[in-house]
Amino acid sequence: MTDDRSTDNRTEIERTTDTTGTPDHDVVIVGGGPAGCSAGVFCARYGLDTLVFDRGRSSIQRCAHLENYPGFPAGIDIGTFYDLLHAHAEEAGCEVVPDMVESVERVDEGFVVEPQEGARVTTVRVLAATRYGGEYLRPLDGGEDGGLFESHDHDGEVHEHFDRSYAKPDGTTPIDGLYVASPSAAADRQAIVAAGRGARVGLTILDEIRREHGHPEGLVDHYDWVRNKTELTGKWADREHWREYADTHRPDDHDMNDERWATLREREIDRRFAQYIGPDEIEERETAGQRALLEHLDDALILERAREITAEGNSLEERVI
User: Fold this and answer.
1) Could you say which of 17, 31, 295, 298 would form a disulfide bridge with 36 (CB–CB 3.0 to 4.6 Å)?
2) From start to end of 141-293, where are the E strands?
3) What segment(s) does the record annotate as region Disordered (predicted)?
4) Domains of the chain: which residue ranges?
């Protein structure tokens, strides 16, 4: 269920459930737009088995041209943007499935997710990331965990819709294991806001998992970044200092034996050191990143630019001569 890769910012994690009746996935995300893919990238990079369902009414695909998402000076067409979102999620380790989710139901081990066409899947956690609707969550409504939907009058008729204030700002809900990035009053307006909301909820999931695995509060927060190895200096380059730092943040009533704590601590130190990379790897990643972008650009435009570069080079050579 977990990903055993330890490169980049990924780390090995313990299983979140017993081996009997183990769910198919750690996280199922409903919605593959900016919110869903952003959350998926963080979850998958940490090592969670992450499945993203994406097919349905997508607000971003109703946009003619996306012009206010940082990083695209002249804007970007929606088809290319969507392809980049999914390519990034898949590169991080997500499985993206083009299917619509019809229902999410609670079971002892977590949830059963029923898609429209494919086979049902089980998961420990569900993250809702669809701006429109939320009807697939209807089976979770009612009882002490209810209140997902609210009623209102319109032209003399009573209508129900998903309560956009149901989730807390961090995406948690009264239903254990259910998180909401969207529909949400905090993220249902702009693509960049939705992406930020998805990342916020994704990190909430990671922090909760780290608590479950025994990380004390001082070590719970997860930072997903890659840093230059030249910054790894002084006491923070000393593994023993990290051990002392971790032990200082371990509470006296920490419910974990010393042997298991040592394993957890060393794994966390390994993860932090792995975030630092040297100049050769930085260069390799820069090249790989730009090549990945080329895969999503129009071939005719690439050839046109190549001819312009050649012409500029010839002109410069003539002036030098």
Assistant:
1) 31
2) 149-154, 157-162, 178-182, 227-228, 276-277
3) 1-25
4) 25-212, 217-277, 279-320
